[in-house]
From TrEMBL:
UniProt protein name: MIP18 family-like domain-containing protein
Domain MIP18 family-like per the UniProt entry, residue ranges: 7-79
InterPro entries referenced in this protein's UniProt entry, alphabetically: Fe-S_Maturation_MIP18, FSCA_dom_sf, MIP18-like
Any Pfam family matching the protein: FeS_assembly_P
Amino acid sequence: MADQLNEQILNALENVIDPELGIDIVNLGLIYGVDADATTGICTVTMTLTIAGCPLSDYLNDEIEAEVSHFAEIKEVKINLVWEPAWSIEKMSREARIELGIH
């Protein structure tokens, strides 16, 4: 059940689009993990940013919280921002790289 909820939330996070690149944060490789606990109602999203000091961090946090909050099981969203492992182009999905012209 928890794995299914985590997968559903990860799919929902594909609706969060990086406004500078026009690609969702999942396919950009910014989401490192989703841990939803339906018992406590807490969902922790572990993620990174492309660069430290990214001006979009508040925007992305708000959008993530909005998407995850649609799930009835979730009462609180926590963003766990990490810098290791560091983000790189290799973390992007094949589709995202193609869309951005990176081969």
